[in-house]
Amino acid sequence: MHPFDYVRVSTVPEAVKSGSRESAKFVAGGTNLIDLMKCTVERPAHVVDVNALPLASIEAVSGGIRIGALARMSDVAAHPLVQQRFPAVSQALLLSASPQLRNAASIGGNLMQRTRCPYFRELIWTPCNKRNPGSGCSAREGENRMQAVIGTSDACIATHPSDFAVAVAALDGVLTLHGPKGERRVNAVDFHLLPGRTPHLEHDLAHGELITSVFLPDAPHAAHSSYLKVRDRSSYEFALASAAVGLALDGNTIRGARVAFGGIGTKPWRARAAEAVLIGKAATVDVFRAAADVELKDARGYGQNDFKIELAKRTLVRALGDLAGGAA
Ligand SMILES: Cc1cc2nc3c(=O)[nH]c(=O)nc-3n(C[C@H](O)[C@H](O)[C@H](O)COP(=O)(O)OP(=O)(O)OC[C@H]3O[C@@H](n4cnc5c(N)ncnc54)[C@H](O)[C@@H]3O)c2cc1C
Ligand code: SF4
Asked: For position 32, which CATH number holds?
């Protein structure tokens, strides 16, 4: 571990000021940052502890709910407002990590967590454009079973690991950020960046900017939503493929649809092409499959992860079928 200093802040302006210093990093639950500091992938000179900030509330606001960035994953998952109005969000959190991790980890940190690509985290410093820009990508020709099949580039094929971020992207979440230039809002679907030629740039977040809250807008498809996660074991494991889905049904007809994939994309993957196929159609397995085929038509495997393309399609068909219930 590299040497660093530590400061605990109690107001947002203080956090922004301390976090704006060169090579400073915020820490919340520490379940990702400290891990990466131990293997020296992250080497902040200043660690700014934001846990004393008053940003842990979960409350109803006009048009939806607001979740403070320091709310713990377990508290958000168990909150009645989230369970009733945004079940996909609660389910995505409950299917994440382990109870101990969910008790410690914040939702701001969850959105900011970094990839689990083994070459990114490895102690033997193999080429990795995300860790060391310009060095190459070891995963393309190497271990890539867990890597992405959509949104990839020549520079990086790492999967985004968050489940929560997938549900928030599907349900039109909006992040509030506070930074040296003041407050701004970013749609969750735009917050995570595609790797392109710069895989080390992962978010629309300036240095020193802090996520302060996540707003989730009420909608019929949000109240009727779910999250399905397929993984190698049933607990404490990242997704091979997952789908956050929301449907507003009028009898058997789909009036509103929201879809996002996890486990297969370099960012939480909002599936707008699939949504366009679903709207106005009958809720049938054939329609669900057509939506999955359209969304994944440009997906590309790298050998070991080829299976993810078909798995993602089947995950979406099952998620939509379960949600539509008798309608499908
Ligand atoms: C074994 C294991 C299994 C896991 N399985 C899953 C899983 O299945 N699904 C899943 O989604 N996740 C999983 N995780 C990841 C876990 O959910 C994240 O580590 C956690 O959510 C990070 O939150 P944190 O508060 O601990 O973040 P920290 O480690 O404190 O911070 C992480 C990053 O976020 C930044 N940060 C923190 N808060 C803010 C803020 N408010 N504004 C701006 N930047 C901020 C930090 O600077 C740091 O870069 C797993 C983790 C482990 C260790
Ligand atoms: S996939 Fe991305 S994170 Fe993994 S080795 Fe390649 S560049 Fe690094």
From this structure: 3.30.43.10
Residues enclosing ligand 2, CB less than 6 A?
115, 117, 119-120, 128-130, 137-139, 147, 156-158, 199
How far apart are alpha carbons 165 and 244 in whole angstroms?
Answer: 10
Residue 179 neighbours by CB distance under 10 Å: 17
**Which residue range(s) make up the domain with 36?**
5-52
Residue 235: what pLDDT?
86
Tell me the CA–centroid distance for residue 35 and ligand 2, in Å: 18
- Can you say how many angstroms the Cα of residue 247 is from the centroid of all Cα atoms in its chain? 20
The Cα–Cα gap between 112 and 191 comes to 10
Atom of ligand 2 nearest to the CA of 157: 1
Per the structure block, which two tokens stand in for 280? 């106005």
The number of the ligand 1 atom at minimal distance from the alpha carbon of 237 is 8
- For residues 214 and 174, give the distance between their C-alpha atoms in angstroms, rounded to a whole number: 6
Ligand nearest to the CA of 23: 1
Q: Is residue 278 part of a domain?
A: yes
Judge whether 101 lies within some domain: no
Beta bridge partners of residue 207, listed in sequence order: none
Q: Please tell me whether the overall predicted TM-score, pTM, comes out greater than 0.90 for this model.
A: yes
pLDDT along the chain (328 residues), means of 10: 94 98 98 95 97 98 98 98 98 97 98 97 85 96 97 98 98 98 98 98 98 98 98 94 98 98 98 98 98 98 98 98 82
Asked if residue 170 belongs to a domain, the reply is: no
For residue 153, the ligand closest to its alpha carbon is: 2
- Determine, yes or no, domain membership for 268: yes
